[in-house]
Amino acid sequence: MSARETILRRIRDNLGPDEAAAGAVADRLGERAAGPRPQRSQLPHAEQVDLFAEMAEEVDATVVRVAGSEDVPQAIADYLSAHNLPARLVIAPDGRLDEIPWEERPTLEIRRGIAVEADAVSVTPAFAGIAETGTVMAISGRETPTTLNFLPENHVVVLRESEIVGTYEDGWQRLRAQTEMSGDVTSMPRTVNFITGPSRTADIAMTLYLGAHGPRRLHIILVADDGG
Q: Is 96 in contact with 157 (CB distance < 8 Å)?
């Protein structure tokens, strides 16, 4: 044992266990006290949905609202047509997207899996929408590969109104509750991404450039809670 290790061991032995500090930490973790939250997000849920759409559009995302899942294929077809994009999609292999009647638009070519460089348009669900900033909260997993969020130039997010929360703290609380409900701490995602509008930078001559480090466009399809 080196002299340094000997000194540190003696210090640890002399300090002994700090039971008071350990108890304070345990109490703090158990309380999960909430910090201050923006007043603008403290709204009834219907108004949070409206705020989310407003804030998302302020950061150059586009938002369309539909009555139910059955309207999603047409909404995506309209988006592709408006931007002269090919009718080829790579979509997340997520059960929430499997509920969408893609057969209603047979001209759409669909592949499920991770994104590759040739993919122009990806379609994903989201874990939550954050009303205070119009941000999409996306978690990684087998059914939600992170490449779909960043590699294609066009990212389409299908988000249910019921998945919109007021603040970032509410999003984390929702994720913690889901993890606790599963009873498996390993179900916590490896990556959580907060996506606020399309990728952008103004580092080059102070000129705003979209698509610098990810999608040039972010399109959000909001599905009403009482829809299919």
A: no
What are the structural domain ranges in the chain? Answer: 43-223
Q: What is the pLDDT of residues 6-28, one digit of tens each?
A: 888 888 777 766 677 667 766 76
Q: Which parts of 140-224 are beta strand (E)?
A: 154-160, 164-165, 192-195, 200-201, 209-210, 217-223
Distance CA 222, CA 69 (A): 10
Identify whether the C-beta of residue 139 lies closer than 8 Å to the C-beta of residue 192: yes
Q: How far is CA 33 from the centre of its chain?
A: 23
Q: For the chain, give the number of residues.
A: 228
Q: Is 131 helix (H, G, I), strand (E, B) or coil?
A: coil
CB 110 within 8 A of CB 158: no
pLDDT digits (tens, 9 = 90+) for 173-212: 999 888 888 777 667 888 999 999 987 665 566 665 555 6
Domain covering 43-223: architecture? 3-Layer(aba) Sandwich (3.40)
Model confidence, pTM: 0.81
Beta strands in the chain (DSSP E): 62-66, 88-91, 109-112, 121-125, 128-130, 135-139, 154-160, 164-165, 192-195, 200-201, 209-210, 217-223
What average pLDDT does the segment 158-180 reach?
93
Residue 207 tokens, joined: 């000129």
Contact 86, 63 (CB under 8 A): no
